[in-house]
Amino acid sequence: MDDKNRCRQLELMLEVAQFQTTNVQELLDFSLEKVLALTESSIGYIYHYYEEKQQFVLNTWSKGVMPSCRVAEPQTVYHLDKTGIWGEVVRQRRPIMVNDYAVPSDLKKGYPEGHVPLSRFLSIPVFDKDKIVAVVGVANKVLPYDQANLLQLTLVMDGVWKIVSRLIMEEHISLAGREWQTTFDSISDSISLIDADQNIIRCNEATSNLLGRTYGDIINQPCWKLFHDAEGPIQNCPFVRAKLSLQSETATVKHDDRWLEVTVDPLLSDTGVLSGAVHIVRDVTERVSLNNSIQEINELFKLFMRYSPIYTFIKEVTENESYVLQSSDNFIDLTGISATDMVGKTMHQIFSADFADKMVADDLQVIKAQKVFRLEEEMQGHTYITYKFPIETSSGRKLLAGYSIDITDLRQAEESLRMVQTQLMHNDKLASIGQLAAGVAHEINNPMGFVSSNMITLGKYIEKYNRYIDQIEVELRSGSSGLLPEPVTALRQSLKLDYVMRDVMVLVEENIEGIDRVKRIVQDLQTFSRADSSNIGAANLNSCMDSTINIVNNEIRYSAELKREYGDLPKVHCNVQQINQVFMNLLINASHAIKSKGEEIGEIVVRTWCDQDNVFTSVSDNGCGIAPENQSRIFDAFYTTKEIGKGTGLGLSISSSIIRKHGGDITLTSETGVGSTFTVRLPLKPPPEGDPV
Hints:
The protein is an alpha+beta fold and 693 residues long. The chain has 21 helices and 23 strands. The chain folds into five domains: 3-174, Beta-Lactamase; 187-283, Beta-Lactamase (2-Layer Sandwich); 291-406, PAS domain (Beta-Lactamase); 412-524, no CATH class; 537-683, Heat Shock Protein 90, CATH 3.30.565. It has a six-stranded antiparallel sheet with strand order 3-2-1-6-5-4. The mean pLDDT is 81.
């Protein structure tokens, strides 16, 4: 190669190297034309070759080829085994030079009709390392091709392909960059790349939208200034923590009226030093608001479950035990164990053995029957209604859930209602008895009035007869030497006149005394007949007790001797009929207690006394007494120590209610086999106005 050709080659290579384009196709088209000029060829081509597929793909034909080509359906893709001599470049992996194309050769396969005629042919493989990436061919030089043409073509295409490789790489990088940025911008979270000084060096579109700033206003600005309007790194900054831990760090911060979750993933150098970080910001305002709402709801629900009267639970049941899986917080009031500590505990770890045995048996029945059970349970003096029902799970675990409701107040209310109903019936009965007593008293008063009057008159008449007889006897004696005539004396003796005259006055006096007692009983009946609750007034309790004793005396007299030890009492503001009813109940109970003991005649002592504020009345007996275990229930409605059919269990309950309504109380002291004392305290100051009595 002479200096002229070498210079021309260098010029062409320089032109190719300095060709300004970012398009590989433009570069290859330009390069092919320059190669044709350099080798003085009239036509040429460039094919991409893919070794994996053994496939040629046409990239560029020289400009003069297509107008001269009359092939009906020209191909742009050829498989290696379908090619002729020009494919030998790949098969032999070396250049092929033919200066007389007309000479027959076994390597030729001919070319299609209409193809441009070839006279000379030179083709070379283009390598990228040890891999053929392209095939370049030139043809139809006027003079034969030589080694200089081969060297020129090889050197130029090697240089061109280095440029092509660089353009392809740049194009791939550019495409990857565009794809990365597109992907980057499609992310809804704000994502930024920050350097070691916390300056943003790249960000996505979401960052711009979040901050309301353009890219130019964001790049090279510190993240703490953009996101927090701070003069320096914020407290609890995740970047500062990530720099120390070299691990991902997260913090939730307030920005204006929004909550932002900031995550910093450190980028480390080869030596393990933080060189930057990925700064991810997510607007979690809705989530924080939702979490706050959920937390508030949970707190309210927790308070509800803590103070609710409904106790809820879920348990797992085995062959012989039940385990708590979850329970409401209010169970601490029943068990003294918090809901958290109850989880995993068995019934026998929580409750007494007997109660736990029954509970486990009930749980097993629920699981076995697979239906809802309703139970009424007693625990620590309270009554509960419990519903238990099975839960089906895909795992086949034997679970049940349920809830308990404390119905103690309801039961007490029901008992109070029954007591009130009984009281009303009792009051109604007393009212009827009172009306009857009032009528009887009225009817008795009338005859007793004239009987009493007649007895007094009769007494006076008898007295007159006695005076008359005495005077007759005096006169008879005066005429008979001081003696009665014998017939008169005999008649007097036979009639027992001396006894009759003495006894008749005794009989009259006893009748008058009996009539007085009847009158007092009638007066007491009249007192009881005023049974309405409006009969409020000042009363002397000694008189009330006397009236009551008169009424129940027939009940007492055959079982006990009654003693009265009365003190001087001021009058008490009370409902006389109701207080008499209390005294009657206490006296009758005392009589029954003595009878139950079995002694022939017992003793009942009634005492009254007072202090500055109260008046006291006690009824004591030496009867059977009340057992200690029964004394706390003696005033409960429907509770009685008497045999079935001999008591309703309401007498003391009603009496206690009456005294409480008066602002007082009834207390008991008793010893089995010795006797009992009931003491009634009534205040001298009446209850506040408007309180029922």
